[in-house]
Every structure is written in structure tokens, then in C-alpha cells.
Write a structure and sequence with these properties.
InterPro entries: Iontro_rcpt_C (IPR001320), Solute-binding_3/MltF_N (IPR001638). GO terms for molecular function: ligand-gated monoatomic ion channel activity. This protein has 280 residues and is of the alpha/beta class. The chain has two domains: 124 residues, Periplasmic binding protein-like II (D-Maltodextrin-Binding Protein, domain 2), CATH 3.40.190; 91 residues, D-Maltodextrin-Binding Protein, domain 2 (3-Layer(aba) Sandwich), CATH 3.40.190.10. The strands form three sheets. Strands 7-6-8-5-9 form a five-stranded mixed β-sheet. Strands 2-1-3 form a three-stranded parallel β-sheet.
Amino acid sequence: MTRRPLAAILVAATATLVLAACSAGGSGDSGGSASGSADGYVTEGKFTVGTGEPAYYPWVIDDAPESGEGFEPAVAYAVAAQLGFDADDVVWVRTTFDQAIAPGAKDFDINLQQFSITPERAENVDFSSPYYETTQVVITVEGSPAASATSIADLKDLLVGAQVGTTSFDAIESEIAPTAGAQVFNTNDDAKLALQSGTVDAIVVDLPTAFYLTGAELDGGKIIGQLPSTAGGDEFGLVLAKGSPLTAKVTAAVDALREDGTLDELATTWLGGDAAPLLD
């Protein structure tokens, strides 16, 4: 997180777009009452889960989290099952990104909208242990020599760049090791402009940034694929109200899903494949 300020800005920009797209009538309200049940849930016998309005692909498919399709609904239903809830007992509510992490009572038990776990946010809300760590992704544009690449070997003789001092830059050197060396840029914006102008053939960014750039900023933007796992990515956690009595048991549920391989399987299903295939 601290090594990738521009990536963080882009992720924040994504959140800003989400905020701009949100209607004023969203059901989430950080200041809303959380009456609570005896066992700590917002509603007795229900597991109330917050997401964005709208919620975007591939994190949520077709803005319909109740379908269970998409990485984050799949995680939410898996956590619910770990806590002993049936799928029919999962209730979805909508909040903006900022409402979810603002101080105050919550109308959800957990909320997931790709919230990076940071000390600043942890002053206002609780986080579960991480359910996902961002990977590094190679992206390009249509017409680039990299557009037909399907493997790391295909990238070695191309010009691949990233912002200096980032996990993305380290991943180029360690995972691709291009013949011409990693092309360095001061910011992700500089790298994006170099890709648009053809100065480089591809750039490496983290997964949320890759979805944002290829979906919203780059004409003909294309995800080539995810690089093999590299340490240092942002960690996403489930958000709970500060001091929630559920934090420990939700974290235990996430830990169990990580240990038995469920989280990796869900990430492969919903964030890999056609969306962002794993390169080898």
C-alpha cells in the first residue's frame, strides 16, 4: 500500500466513479441504527452483507449479488456458510464506498467492496483477516505487439513498463525479466500515456487498477493476464462496525476458507479465466 501511491489513487478514482454513479437513495447509511440481535448480528437469524450501488464486474456479476455470482458474493456466501447461515438467510444492502468505512453504526454485518486494509481505515471500522491479496497484471491496447501475447515468454522481447518503486515494477523484473529491462515511469499515469502512444508495448499494474484502466480509460484496453503470485499486494478485508462482536468469528471464517483453499478457488473462478488469465 505504501509503495504504490498512484495505484492507490487510481483505486480511489474507481471508488469516486462508483460514488458518482450511486443514487442518493442508497439503502446504506453509516449513521443508521444497528439495533442488533443478542448474538451481535444486525438482524436476528440473518447475515446482512453490504456492497456497492452499483457493484461492478467481475467483483459482482450484473450488479446482482444475491445471485452469488462474482468473486465478492461468492466470498460472502462462503463466509455465511462458515457461520452457519443458509444462503436464504443472507440479506444484501447497499452502501457507498465511503459510507461503509465512515465512523458510526452500520446496517450491515459485513461489507465488501475491495476495501484495502489500512491503519487509517482501521481507526473507524474493523477488518476481517484478508480475503484477497491483489495480484500484478499485464495490460496492453489493441494493435500493440503485446496484444497477442499469451505467456510470459511472449513478453520477454517487448517493452514492458511500470511505476518506479512499486510492486508492479518489481514483478516485471522478477517474473518477466524483459530483454530491454523494465521501462520505468514516475507515475501510473505516465505509464498509461506511454502505452497509449506506443512508447511501450505493455504495462504492469495491480488487478483492480487493471480492470479500471482497461474498462474506463484505455481505448481498446486489454488484460493480457496475471503474473505469478508476488508478495506486497494490497490486502482486501471485510468491513465490520468498529468494535463489532462479530469481528473475531468472521475472521475465523475467512481464515478457514483460506486454509482449505476455498478463497483461492473462488479467485480463480471469478477473477481468473477470461477476465484475467494466469500467465505462465
